[in-house]
């Protein structure tokens, strides 16, 4: 029987309540050397829903798994139809105050690095440099046969040409850029092959049930080793891909600080969880540090 990936988490213990005082985050950033680990919650204020928060997409949507994508041509048709439609909305998202605050902290030398679980590219659009995309990026496409990479905008053009008039109304957009469509709306959507070898194309993202490339994991572990503290922003830490770095930091005696409105799987490793909206919390932190944040206008 095929194992399904971990999609949810229920606390098995009483966790400390969240705080509304961001001062520990101010102190950590003021000391410098902070490594940021961000999740889908950081992008909700840009109009991209998260997976597990209030109204999260997992309440109505099961993400595509690597096993289903590679095993079924019909699953790939469904995925690409939904992703092609979602890309139009996803691509219009703009960085919010949280992304811009992280970029400002970086410009002022307060960060040692940024790791994101998000695939939306909003950290970079907000001005952050050297971002490690733990789960890849929807901006790129990879061929599963020959390994060739191509730009998502080029695939979008090819899919438009192969599916003229395809413009259904989606029931929602998800953190992975996947739109909610019925099978009837997907219809006979045409999937295009790799332009180099004719193979199967996949977005260059880590699907649920797929492993993060080992070299990328080791790079992130090295960033944790070099950091003074770890600041988690908008991640429930449900999946091990992010939680392992929280555990690593805590085991090394490095302070872990979390800004997330809901409890997380990493709370017991953290010195504090600030239960405030991310944009407002990080803007407040920047103000207390005297760090100007771009308006985004």
Query: Helix/strand-derived class?
Result: alpha/beta
Number of DSSP E strands: 9
Helix content: 25-40%
Strand content: 5-15%
H/E order of the elements? Answer: HEHHHEHEEEHHEHEHEEH
Low-confidence stretches: 1-5, 55-60
Look at the structure and give the mean pLDDT.
90
Distance N terminus to C terminus? 52 Å
- Neighbour order of strands in the largest sheet: 3-2-1-7-8-9
Q: Note the overall shape.
A: elongated
Could you walk me through the main structural features you see in this protein, from its secondary elements to its overall organization?
With 297 residues, the protein is an alpha/beta fold. It contains ten helices and nine strands. A six-stranded parallel sheet has the order 3-2-1-7-8-9, sandwiched between helices. The protein has a three-stranded antiparallel sheet with strand order 5-4-6. Helix 9 (240-251) links the parallel strand 7 (229-233) and strand 8. Helix 1 packs across helix 10 (278-289). It is elongated and about 55 Å long.
